[in-house]
Write a structure and sequence with these properties.
single chain; Immunoglobulin-like; about 25% helix; about 725 residues; globular; binds ligand MIG; 9-stranded parallel sheet
C-alpha cells in the first residue's frame, strides 16, 4: 500500500498497480507516511474486502445510477455496467459504474474506488451496521474524503474535472421513439409539434435510420435525401440526433468492418481472432476502443454524419450489450439438443430454461474477450466498466477534431465516472411505471455526485404503456432535468403529447412551455454547478443539517433557489412536504398565469399540499431568486434581453445569473455573460440593483414576495449606466 495526500486533506491509498481509468485528473497528491485507514481491510489472492462501521443514523448518498432510494442504506449494489431493461428493485446494477458515495455521519466521510472492474457495495444489508466494499481485483486506488457533504462532493468533483456541457439547444424538449422509421414520419412529427404549438428542439433517429443496422450508414430507401433533409430540419431549428451502436456488423464490403479487420481494430478472442458477438445486425465485432488508434479511426467515422449537418448523437449498447456470442449460442443449442426426448423434472427443466435465458450479456462471454489497451493485452472482464467510456471518448475526440470550438450534443448509455467529462447520459430502458418516475427523482443527486450533470430519464417511460396522467406528472418533474427527452420502445403505446386527450395535450403544452420559461435559471444553475463542482439536484441534507432533512427521500433542491416536491403517484392530487425553513410555495400552472394568488407563504415543518393535475409546485427559498423569460417553441428564439425574476425576499437577495453563447467552448476560457441581481428591502420598499456585462439586456420585471405573503411587481427598465460587471 502507498499513501498520498493533497493539501486539502484528501487521502489516497494505492493498492497495487492499477489499470488506468482516466477518472482522476488532478495530480495534486504527494506521497506521505502511512495514515490510519478507516475500517478493516482484508486481502485475498484475488480480491479486497473492506469493512466500515455505520452508526444508526448514518445516511448514504451516491453510487449514481442505481435502483432504490436516495439513501442507499439497506441493499447491495454492484458496479458492473449492465444492459438490463427491467429496472426492478432487486437489480444490483444498471448501465453505469459510479463508485463514489458519501456517508452522512456526525463527521461525514466519502470514498471513491478507482477501479475498472467489478466492485460490490453492501450498504448495511448483510449486517445493518456494516458497509462492505468488495473489489474484484487487487490493483486499485481508493480516495477517502472528510468534511461536510457539500465539501466532499466538491473535493471529489474537482478531482474528476469539469463535466460535459451540451449546446444550449440541448436544454430544449426532445422527442424520441424507437423508431421514427423514415423521412416522412420524422417530418410529420416535426409538423405536429408546430401545429399543436408545442416546443421541440430535437428529434431522435433510432436504429431503423441505418441500412441494416450498420453504424454510420443511412438507409437510402427511407432517407433518400438525408443531407438536404437534415438541412431543412435545421432551418426549422430542429436537430436530428442519430444513434450509434457499439457493435459493427460483419458484412463484406462494409467499410467499417473491412477496415477494422484489416487493421486488427476489433476486440479479440483468446486465440487472437476477432471476437464474434451478436447484436441488432446479427453477428458483429466490437471495436477495441481501449486502443488509441482505434479511437482515432472510429471517432473519424462520425465525421461522415457531421458532414451531412448532424450535430449530435446517442451512443447505445456500449456496456457492451451482447445478445449472444457465437460460442455461447453453440453451447446453448447443443445443451438443448442433449435434453431432447428426456422427461424433465423441476431441476432439469429450469436448467434448460436458464441456459437460453442467460445467454445474453454473460460473464463467460465477457471473460472470453480481450483488449489491446495501448499495447497491453487485457481481459475484457477486468476492465469491463471502461468500454462505454472509451467508445464515447472516441466520439468526443472525433468531434474535437472536426470542429474544436463547437459544442456537440452527446449522450451515452454505459458509463464510468471518468466519462462525465465527455458526455451526458440517459438512464436507459425504464418503464412507464409511477415507480420509475420516483426512481428518476431519486437518481438525480447520485448522478450529479458522479459528475453527470447533463442527464435525464426517458420521460413517460421506455417500456410499457404510459397514461396521459403519468406523462403529465413525469413532465412536471423532468422539465427540471437538463436532458428532457420523451422516448418510448417499439410496440408500446405512442407517447407523443398529441396521442392523449385534448385536455392532457393542453396541460402538457403549458408544462413544456414552462420548461422553456425556466431556461435562464436552469442553464445558469447548471453551468455554476459545473464550474463550482456542486450539485444541481441535491437531497435536502446538502444545505440543511437538521435530522429531519436526512429522512426526506422524495424532495430535491434544484440549484440555489428552489426546492421541488413532485407528485409521483397515480391519481394523487396532493402530497406531504417537509420544509426545513420558511418558504413560499408557487403553484405554477402556466407562465402567463403569474399572479399573486399563485403564491403562498409556508412555515417551516410538515404540510399536506394539494396539487391539482395542472399544477407544478415550486418552493422558493428565502432570499433567493429565480430568473425566467417568456417561453418560445425553440431555445434559440428565447428572448433573454427581457427577463422575469421571481423571489421570496424577506429582507435581501442576491443572485448571479450566468449565460453565454450556448454554442462554443468559449465558456471554458471565461467567455460569459454575468448579471448580478441584488434586492434589498428597506422600510417596506424594495431597492434593486442590476450589474451586468450583457449589453443586450433590456428589462427585468421583478415579482417579489415579502414576509407577509404580499407581492410587489417592479419593472426595472433599460439597464443601468455603463453596464459593467465586476
Ligand atoms: O435494447 O435502439 O436504451 O433507448 O431505443 C434496445 C433501440 C436497444 C436500447 C436503448 C433504447 C433504444 C433501443 N436500444
Amino acid at each position: 500500500m502507498n499513501f498520498y495526500q493533497t493539501v486539502e486533506g484528501i487521502n489516497k491509498i494505492s493498492f497495487g498497480d492499477m489499470i488506468p481509468t482516466e477518472t482522476i485528473l488532478q495530480k495534486r497528491f504527494v506521497k506521505t507516511d502511512s495514515f490510519m485507514v478507516p475500517g478493516v481491510i482484508q486481502k485475498s489472492e484475488k480480491r479486497f474486502t473492506w469493512k466500515l462501521d455505520l452508526n444508526d443514523d448514518d445516511v448514504i448518498y451516491g453510487l449514481g445510477q442505481n435502483v432504490r432510494g436516495m439513501n442507499k442504506r439497506g441493499f447491495v449494489y454492484e458496479s458492473f455496467c449492465s444492459d438490463d431493461p427491467n429496472h426492478t428493485p432487486d437489480k444490483k446494477s444498471l448501465y453505469g459504474a459510479h463508485n463514489f458515495f458519501v456517508v452522512l455521519s456526525d463527521k461525514p466521510w466519502g470514498i471513491y474506488i478507482d477501479f475498472a472492474g467489478k466492485v460490490t457495495f453492501d450498504i448495511g444489508f448483510e449486517h445493518k451496521d456494516v458497509l462492505k466494499i468488495e473489489v474484484e481485483g487487487i490493483d486499485f486506488d481508493a480516495y477517502v474524503f472528510t468534511g461536510t457533504y457539500k465539501q466532499i462532493v466538491n473535493q471529489f468533483r474537482s478531482l474528476i474535472g469539469q463535466s460535459y456541457v451540451p449546446p444550449k439547444w440541448g436544454f430544449g424538449y426532445q422527442q424520441s421513439r424507437w423508431s421514427y422509421v423514415d423521412q416522412e414520419e420524422v417530418l410529420s412529427i416535426a409538423d405536429k409539434f408546430d401545429e399543436h404549438d408545442l416546443p421541440c428542439d430535437a428529434i431522435y433517429l433510432d436504429i431503423d435510420y441505418m441500412e441494416r443496422f450498420k453504424d454510420f450508414t443511412v438507409s437510402e430507401e427511407r432517407f433518400p435525401a438525408f443531407q438536404s433533409f437534415v438541412t431543412d430540419m435545421k432551418s426549422r431549428e430542429i436537430k436530428l440526433i442519430p444513434i450509434i451502436d457499439a457493435g459493427v456488423k460483419i458484412e463484406s464490403g462494409y467499410d467499417v468492418y473491412e477496415e477494422g479487420v484489416k487493421n486488427d481494430y476489433f476486440c479479440n478472442d483468446a486465440s487472437g481472432h476477432p471476437f464474434v458477438a451478436a447484436v441488432w445486425p446479427g453477428k458483429v465485432h466490437f471495436p477495441d476502443f481501449f486502443n488509441s488508434q482505434v479511437r482515432k479511426w472510429f471517432g473519424q467515422k462520425y465525421h461522415h454524419l457531421l458532414n451531412m449537418g448532424i450535430e449530435g448523437f446517442w451512443n447505445d449498447m456500449n456496456e457492451p450489450a451482447i445478445f449472444y456470442s457465437e460460442q455461447g449460442l453453440k453451447d446453448a443449442i447443443s445443451f438443448v439438443n442433449s435434453q431432447a426426448g428426456k422427461n424433465l423434472d423441476i431441476y432439469t427443466f429450469f436448467d434448460l430454461k436458464d441456459k437460453i435465458l442467460n445467454i445474453s450479456n454473460s460473464e463467460v462471454d465477457y471473460k472470453s474477450m480481450y483488449h489491446n489497451y495501448d499495447g497491453v493485452k487485457v481481459n475484457h472482464y477486468d476492465v469491463h466498466n471502461l468500454f462505454g467510456y472509451f467508445m464515447t471518448r472516441a466520439a468526443a475526440e472525433g468531434f474535437e477534431d472536426y470542429a474544436p470550438d463547437k459544442r456537440h450534443f452527446m449522450i451515452t448509455r454505459a458509463s464510468h465516472i471518468g466519462m462525465a467529462k465527455h458526455s451526458g447520459i440517459w438512464t436507459g430502458d425504464n418503464h412507464s411505471w409511477w415507480e420509475h418516475l420516483k426512481l428518476n427523482i431519486q437518481m438525480m443527486p447520485g448522478l450529479g455526485m458522479a459528475g453527470f450533470l447533463y442527464s435525464g430519464a426517458d420521460t413517460g417511460g421506455f417500456g410499457g404503456e404510459a397514461s396521459g396522467e403519468l406523462l403529465t406528472r413525469w413532465l412536471q418533474f423532468s422539465i427540471f432535468t437538463p436532458l428532457l427527452r420523451n422516448h418510448s420502445a417499439l410496440g408500446t403505446r405512442k407517447q407523443e403529447p398529441w396521442m392523449f386527450e385534448t385536455e392532457t395535450l393542453d396541460r402538457i403544452r403549458d408544462v413544456v412551455k414552462m420548461r422553456y420559461a425556466l431556461i435562464p435559471y436552469l442553464y445558469s444553475e447548471f453551468m455554476k454547478a459545473n464550474f463550482n463542482h456542486e450539485l444541481l439536484f441535491a437531497p435536502l441534507s446538502y444545505e440543511y443539517d437538521d435530522l429531519r432533512s436526512k429522512q426526506v427521500e422524495d424532495q430535491l433542491l434544484l440549484g440555489d433557489s428552489l426546492m421541488l416536491a413532485p407528485v409521483y403517484e397515480q391519481n394523487s392530487r396532493g402530497r406531504s412536504v417537509y420544509l426545513p425553513e420558511k418558504m413560499v410555495l408557487w403553484k405554477v400552472t402556466a407562465f402567463e398565469h403569474l399572479n399573486e394568488e399563485a403564491f403562498e407563504l409556508m412555515e417551516e415543518g410538515y404540510h399536506f399540499v394539494d396539487v391539482a393535475l395542472n399544477e407544478i409546485p415550486l418552493y422558493l427559498k428565502p432570499g433567493k431568486l429565480v430568473v425566467l423569460t417568456k417561453p418560445e417553441n425553440r431555445v434559440s428564439n428565447l428572448d433573454e434581453s427581457n427577463l422575469v425574476v421571481v423571489g421570496y425576499v424577506p429582507n435581501k437577495a442576491i443572485y448571479e445569473l450566468y449565460n453565454d453563447d450556448g454554442l462554443t467552448k468559449g465558456y471554458k476560457s471565461g467567455d460569459s455573460l454575468k448579471t448580478m441581481l441584488k434586492v434589498d428591502r428597506h422600510k417596506n420598499e424594495y431597492q434593486i440593483s442590476v450589474d451586468t456585462n450583457d449589453m443586450a439586456l433590456k428589462s427585468i420585471t421583478f415579482y417579489l414576495i415579502d414576509d407577509n405573503g404580499k407581492w410587489h411587481v417592479i419593472k426595472q427598465n433599460a439597464i443601468m449606466d455603463e453596464s459593467h460587471y465586476v
